[in-house]
Structure formats: structure tokens, C-alpha cells
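Reply to dn_fold:

You asked what the input looked like. This is it:
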Amino acid sequence: MYKLTEFPARSELDNELARTVSTILAKAIKDTGKASIAVSGGSTPKGFFSVLSQSDIDWSKVTITLADERWVPIDSDASNTRLVHENLLQNKAKEAKFFHLKQGNELTSETLADLNMAASKTLLPLDVLILGMGEDGHTASLFPCSDEITSGLDITNDAVLLKVQPKTASHQRISFTFASLITSKNIFLHSCGEGKKTVLTQALEGDDPFEMPIRAFLQHPSLNTQIFWAP
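and this is what came back:
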């Protein structure tokens, strides 16, 4: 299921999402001594990252990671890791730990196995998951066009991460699986622009997650995906 909250301006969305997320992280730190959050890339979250980075919480007890990453050099413009370092791991959030999904030059089966083990031990269940959404309805790197979409959306898949080669987008990817992402304690979809509102409407009107993988989150009967949208 889902709850849609619309904001008149992106700055208002950024401020409210940052306030909500920082409150959740602070409570997790108080209750368990640590907190974890997975964020998504693209241009949409930059303002949110900037506001969140100034939140007055104990960032030294927070681990940040990505819902997915392109297997590109970290200094590449296509790197979500670079995006997070330049926009979120700033100000007070400099003290946070960062779990790198992209490690090494090649995404071998051994590298994937090591990352799966490390992510399972140090990150899950995530306290906060911030999803994005593509024009084709993909989220994380769960692409409808990929050969890996069946295993990516398989609720019984015990893998935390998987390798993805989309057919309609560049770069090999590493992505959290749907089965691992839905263990997150708080799930948000951060979306902006009229074009994405059209995609969101299409996603809500249909029921095939293999056509639009974001539907797996929005229409799951026991999930509460909070949609934050602004023009």
C-alpha cells in the first residue's frame, strides 16, 4: 500500500523529508545505538541531501548506502557514490559511515558474494529506504527490461544484492533485491516533476510489477510506502 503526500514546492518536500528521516534515524540510534539508510541517485535528491546533511543527529552512528549503483569509476559523473559524497556526506553528515556497493574494478561472483555477506551483517534491516523511480517505472536497478528482473523481484530470493545489466540503460549495475528492500522499516518514494507524476499515475493504475517494478512496493498489501511528490 502507499500514502501520497504532495508538496507545492520541492524545497518544502526536501525540508519535510529531511525532518522525517532525521527523526527516524535519531530514534533508531536511541533505541539500538545505530541506524542505516539507503538512498537513491539522480538529480532529484540533491536538495534533500543538502538539508539532511545539516541535521543535528549523531551521524557517527549512521551507515549510509545506496539502493543501487552503476559499476563505474567513483569519479565518474555517472557514479551515485560520487553524488552522495558531494551532496550528503557533507556538513554534520561527514561523520557518517558509507557502505560502498561498488568495490573493485569488476563485479565478479566473488565480489558479489562478499558484498552480500557484508550488507546482510551491517545494514539490514534498513531503518530508512529512499527510492527513486525512472520513466519506465524501474526503481533501484530493478529494470523491467533486464534478464534479472525475475530474480530481482522474487520475494523468496535470499540474496541481498544482485548484478543487473539493463537493456535500455547504460552501465552494469549492482542493486538490492526487492526481498531485501522490503525488510526496511520505513520506505519512501521521492519523486518530482509532472512527468514523474504521470509515471506514478500509470504505476498506480496497473498491477503488473514486471511491467513497472515500482508497483511491487506501491501495491504490496503489507508495505507502507510513503510517496513524497512535488512539481
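The chain has one domain: 2-230.
Hope that clears it up.
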